[in-house]
Amino acid sequence: MTSGSNIELLRFTTCGSVDDGKSTLIGRLLLDTKNILRDQYESIKASSERRGSGELDLSLFTDGLKAEREQGITIDVAYRFFSTAKRKFIIADTPGHIQYTRNMVTGASTANLALILIDARKGMVEQTCRHAFIASLLRIPHIVVCINKMDLVDYSQDAYDKIVEEFSNFASRLDVQDVQFIPVSAKFGDNVVTRSDKMNWYEGSTLMFHLEHVHISGDLNHIDCRFPVQMAIRPRTDEFHDYRSFAGQISGGVFRKGDTVIVLPSGYKSAIMSIDTADGELDEAYAPMSVAMRLSDEFDISRGDMIVRENNKPQTGQEMDLMVCWLNEKVLEEGRNFILRHTTRETTCLIKEIRYKIDINTLRRIETEKALSMNDIGRINIRTAQPLYYDSYRRNRNTGSVIFIDEFTNETVGAGMII
To answer: Is the pTM of this model over 0.85?
Structure first.
């Protein structure tokens, strides 16, 4: 990879149970890759001394909220950016408490990789199962299981092997393709950025090496061309008197100048006259680039419409099955109405049926449950007031996902994946 804007960006989320050391691990990554400013370092050093910890508290590098520092816990999704010579990174540090499962869903929704921490002393717990299942449900392409606090089990290979076997057995029932295991001690930096001399039995890579080299360019759908229109651009200035384009973020496929496309729902056919960006015109653009497209014909196109290829259309329908993560204290029941947001399109929907709830620990379907409580995951059937142009979530995470919004409070109450 070259320097500058061409350096690849990896988004990853950290998850695990409470006190598994997520914030400490991220602090270690930032510190050992020299992504901590001197004034930050001095501030955290002073905070550590005031707390009487006697050593540098690495977790404070990510726990930016005042309430977090006072309570010593992470209570929201904390996004952090850092970079190395090989890659740029955005980290979503999500809470471990069960009541904040919704934050894990938020942090994982755009992630290329999920970093699941397990305390070497405790092994797998319910939150490990929950987070692994959500990572699978959200089709995060890559999972790294960091077995942390190896220093507290005397860097035991047996302790590591036991957890690897336990997680592998559980993951075999999930839809996950790429799982890597790394034994680490975030506190002392073993196998985080530098290799540990205390675990010579481990022959794999360090966490940082894996994050820099995991292959992610093939994870996006570059086959199905999907361009949800976010807004029409008409400057109406002397310089751009006749300029008319349609802006948005490409959700799939590759669009090229001169391509024949159609617009949904109208079905109008046209050709791409130009693909414009703030840095100038492009010959081609692909997901997840944000661009403005000019078409050779003047059609009435607005927010919520979708530009696609003539012979590669998404599914169209008003009734569909979804897997849903329910994120609100108010129970989800059949017969309720919500605002539904799908790409740039917004409509209303009716919950027709709750087919079953998933038992997180056993992954069994509970078909007698006809309501979903906060943090529950289940399969539902909905009907929308207007047709949606969608793909299955398995095929395209962007055009296969929806969010449910309460009509009265405007709160986001659920996240759905179209089956």
So the answer is: no
